[in-house]
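Incident log entry.

Two folding requests arrived from the same account within the same minute. Monitoring flagged them as a possible duplicate submission, but the sequences differ. Recording both here for audit purposes.

Request one:
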Amino acid sequence: MSDMIDMNASLLWWIAAGVVLGAELLTGTVYLMLLSLGMAAAGVAAHLGAPLSAQLLTCATVGGVAMLLWRWRSRSTATAAGPSAGLDLDIGQRVQVTHWSPDHQTSVHYRGAPWQARWQGSMGAPPPGPGEFTILAIEGTRLVLGNTATPHPPA
């Protein structure tokens, strides 16, 4: 009977890890993937016969340390490479603009989601017409668009 309970706890941890990993695939947040890693570690602990308190501690420790390491790695990469580190693959990509507002703002569909964008030209000039534009920069969650091709940085 004890083996059945231990196996069920292990199975529950693995199912929870799979559900959280599936949610990560839908949302694209790396943190859910790291949390599922902690849940998988708790599943291994449960399979090895650890009590529930040790399983919970394992989940929290592995998931938390993974998140801290990811955050530390992300910050050190961003500091070394500049403010748009990790986003440089978007620079130079093209988006289709259907219309511009008078204040040079628009909304575009990019990477499967709506993005706010602004024209990089001067505010005194009229907004450009619709068409294909190149992503020149990313300011927070807003794309900066221009009509000149920007080459991708060398790999």
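Request two (distinct sequence, not a duplicate):
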Amino acid sequence: MTIAPIKVSLAASAAVLALSTAAVQAEPVRYEIEPTHTFVTFEVVHFQTSTLRGRFDKVDGFVELDRKAGTGNAEITIDMGSINSGTPDFDAHLKSPDFFDIAKTPTARFVGKKFGLDGDKLTSVEGELTLLGKTMPVTLKGDRFNCYDQPVLKVHVCGGDFETTIERSQWGMNWGLDMGIPDEVRLVIQIEAIQK
């Protein structure tokens, strides 16, 4: 007589445990790029003196993040024609075949495949950058990752600063290397994205 209640109790416990486990396992949350707070900036040292900077003003895409599981993915598309250095002649040269060749490759794309988290803070994103039609691995280091309820837009937002340094020659961008213009380019992505 005592065996049946024990069996029921064990079955009930197993069911409760299964439900609890399912509740703990969060699903990925999708965030879409907020364009007025998301830009890609590049920096190149000019003949070992000053730092030249420019910004791509049009960025689109999304991030999916499961903070419980420590996983995520991202797809970010950059409109290369939106480059803005503050100097129109320089922008025209950067758009030419010497550099970004926007007539042939009007966009660049970063696909994030592996997220690194420290607790609930996103600290790195490993992925691939497609530029000038060539795809190479890139790792972005995260800083100031934070999520908050945006008081003006009345939406939940996550974002931060992410950066990496690349060698442009890996993508076939070789103009000026023989004149001493550096190969190394620092990329900084400031990103905020809205939960959907």
